[in-house]
Specification:
The structure is a homodimer. Chain A is mainly alpha-helical. Chain A has 9 helices and no strands. In chain A, helix 2 packs across helix 3, helix 5 crosses helix 6 and helix 5 runs parallel beside helix 8. At the A-B interface, helix 6, helix 7, helix 8 and helix 9 of A face helix 6, helix 7, helix 8 and helix 9 of B. Chain A binds a DNA duplex through helix 3.
DNA sequence: GGTATCGGATACCGCCCGGTATCCGCCCCC
DNA sequence: GGGGGCGGATACCGGGCGGTATCCGATACC
C-alpha cells in the first residue's frame, strides 16, 4: 500500500504537488497514530508510511503538535460530515431510520477501527490538557449539536414524541457509538450486529420487538 | 497527599513492609498513568509519586510491563467487585434499581476520572497488541458476564420481561458507562445527571416518565 | 535553457527514558 | 545484640525521538 516516490527505481522521480504531500502525510498520520498511538509513533514512522521523510513533515506542519492539530481539523470535520450524511435518508418511519442508522454505524465501527482508536487518543489528550477550548472538544460539541438538531427534525417530521430530549438522544447516540465500538473491538461476539439499531429505536420510542424488521 | 518515606527529616527512617510498598506503587501508578498516559509517565514519575525511586519498582515488578500487568490485575478486579456491589441492592422495583444504579455510576464517573482514563488506555493497549487472551480483555469479559448474570437474576426476581437479552443489556450497560463518561468529561452539561438512570430504566422495560422518581 | 526558489532529504544534536549493575542500610532471626 | 540477607537507592549506559541546520534537486518562470 501507499507507494511513495522513493518506491520508484530512483530514476524517473517527480516532485508531487504540495497538497498531495499534505494529504498523504495526514492520511499516514491517521493510520500510524491510530495503530501505534500518537506518542508511540515517531515522525519517521509517519513520514515513512507516506513515502516521505521527516523533513516533509516539518516543512508542512512545523512540528509534531502541528501535525496533530491539522489532523484534528481534518478528521473531525470529515466525521461530522459522515455522521450527518448517514442520518439524511428521508425514507421510512422514525424507528426504521433509527435501526438503519444503527446498522450502518455498527458496520462502520468494524471497518474504521482506526478512527475510533484515533478518536479516543485525541479525546484523552484533550482531557489531560484540561483545555476546554481544545479544538477537538469544540468540534465534537459541534457534532453533537448537529446530531441533536437532526434528531429533533426527524422526530417532528414523523410527528413522534421522543421519550427523551433530542439533545440527550444525540449524546446517547455518540456515547453508544463509542461505547459499543469499544466492546466490539475486544469481543465482537458480545455486541450483536443489530444491537445498536434496536437501542436507537428504543430511544426514539419505537420499542424493540424481537424481529419486526 | 501520599507522604513517602523520604518526606521525613531524613532521620527516623523506617523501612515499610513490602506489601505496603507494593500497594503504594500500584496506587501511584494508577494515578500517574491515568494522568500522563502509560507511555507518557516515566518510572521515575511513578516511583516519586509513591515516595520511592525506580529501584523499588524494579524490585517489586521487574519491568514497566510487569507493573502494568500487576495494575491490570489489581484494578480490574476492584472494578468488578465495585460493579457487582453496586447492583446488589435487594430493594424496590427493577426500573427503580436501574435508575439508582445509573445515578451511582454517573456519580462514580465524576469522581473517578482517573479510572476511566486508565481503563481506556489499557483497552487501547489490548486492542493494539491484538492478543485476544490479553488479561485485561479476559477480566473485562468476566465483568460483562457477571453483570449479565446479575441483570438476569434481578429481572427474574422481579418477574419482568426484558426487551433485550440480559447479555445485551450488560453490554449496553458497560458501553453506556464508558461512552457517557467520555462525553461527560469533555462537556459535563451535555450529560444530565439522570440520563444514565433513565436509559437503564428504558432498557429493562420501565419507560422513562419525565419524573416519576 | 538558464537560473532562482522552494521543498523535501540528510546528518546531527541533546534530552529523556527503560533497564541494569552495584551499593548501602534497615529488619529479622538466632 | 550482632551479623547476614534482602530491598530499595544510586549511578550509569544505550537507544530512540523531536527538533534543527544544511544540502540538493526538481519546478517554474523569464
Amino acid at each position: 500500500m501507499s507507494t511513495g516516490p522513493t518506491a520508484l527505481p530512483a530514476a524517473a522521480r517527480r516532485r508531487p504537488p504540495r497538497d498531495e504531500v499534505r494529504r498523504a502525510l495526514l492520511d499516514a498520520a491517521a493510520r500510524t497514530f491510530a495503530r501505534q498511538g500518537i506518542d508511540g509513533a515517531s515522525l519517521d514512522d509517519v513520514a515513512a508510511a507516506a513515502g516521505f521523510t521527516k523533513g516533509a513533515v516539518y516543512s508542512n506542519f512545523g512540528s509534531k503538535e502541528g501535525l496533530v492539530a491539522a489532523l484534528v481539523d481534518d478528521r473531525v470535520s470529515a466525521y461530522l460530515d459522515l455522521g450527518l450524511a448517514a442520518v439524511d435518508d428521508p425514507a421510512a418511519t422514525l424507528p426504521e431510520r433509527a435501526r438503519a442508522l444503527g446498522d450502518r454505524l455498527t458496520a462502520a465501527s468494524d471497518e474504521q477501527h482506526d478512527w475510533h482508536l484515533l478518536f479516543l487518543e485525541l479525546w484523552q489528550r484533550a482531557v489531560r490538557t484540561g483545555r476546554t477550548d481544545d479544538s477537538f472538544v469544540r468540534r465534537h460539541g459541534e457534532l453533537r449539536a448537529a446530531v441533536a438538531e437532526a434528531v429533533a427534525a426527524h422526530a417532528e417530521q414523523a410527528g413522534a414524541e421522543l421519550p427523551l430530549p433530542a439533545a440527550s438522544v444525540a449524546t446517547l447516540l455518540l456515547a453508544l457509538s463509542n461505547g459499543l465500538a469499544i466492546e466490539r473491538m475486544t469481543d465482537p461476539a458480545a455486541v450483536p450486529d443489530d444491537l445498536m439499531g434496536r437501542v436507537l429505536a428504543l430511544l426514539v420510542g419505537g420499542g424493540t420487538g424481537p424481529d419486526q424488521r
